[in-house]
Amino acid sequence: xxxxxxxxxxxxxxxxxxxxxxxxxxxxxxxxxxxxxxxxxxxxxxxxxxxxxxxxxxxxxxxxxxxxxxxxxxxxxxxxxxxxxxxxxxxxxxxxxxxxxxxxxxxxxxxxxxxxxxxxxxxxxxxxxxxxxxxxxxxxxxxxxxxxxxxxxxxxxxxxxxxxxxxxxxxxxxxxxxxxxxxxxxxxxxxxxxxxxxxxxxxxxxxxxxxxxxxxxxxxxxxxxxxxxxxxxxxxxxxxxxxxxxxxxxxxxxxxxxxxxxx
Length: 263
Fold this sequence. Notes:
- By secondary structure, the protein is an alpha+beta fold.
- The protein has 2 domains: 11-124, TATA-Binding Protein; 135-248, Hypothetical protein, domain 2 (Endonuclease III, domain 1).
- It has helices at residues 26-29, 88-97, 104-114, 116-121, 135-143, 150-164, 190-196, 202-215, 218-224, 230-237, 245-248, and strands at residues 15-18, 38-42, 45-50, 53-60, 63-69, 167-171, 174-177.
- The strands form 2 sheets. The protein has a 5-stranded antiparallel beta sheet with strand order 1-5-4-3-2, with no helix packed on it. Strands 6-7 form a two-stranded antiparallel ribbon.
- Helix 5 runs antiparallel to helix 8.
């Protein structure tokens, strides 16, 4: 299956949302170190995995365009079922992921009024948002950020997904996998397999946290931490193996942010 590089090339397979660059800049947000599942598949286009589906996103003329790809076994090159014209479900997935219901220019003005340094640099970094990510994926991903850098973290998460996640499709010879379920990471050999993948000491924290969440809060309980006070969410998260203040204050851990945005 080949990448769909442009809405102009195959318009029937693309949908769009109104989204000026002041509200969102894909290049600044998806490469910011908040998430590790997106790559720039062609100039201005980003391909990655979200909600167990493979997407390509592109911004053109104050619009956010997207297309989805069918899973293996679907008709070759055919669109994923949820991307049919008129389907608002996929629109809402993107709106929620990028928190597009939060008006960013008003926040920039308020932050600029309160902070001269922010006001000075804001014009160079428009459209930077906190992503509202899946709590399990982001919690386990940010455990991997300890003493690490973005390119290495990205490689670790890619190996994690290829080894433990469900195969979704292959685009231009590149395989894509869903993020692993909690159950996939709680086996007795999970830690050893993660060490073999180069996770080092983080292996016991990833497998241990997956097991602790599975046996305790569960994925839904982790998601519900979004609704509790920030301090309480941090307290609960810090009881998990390998989770400290760095992970709980990072974007995507699933807890309510202290100001401005909420995960």
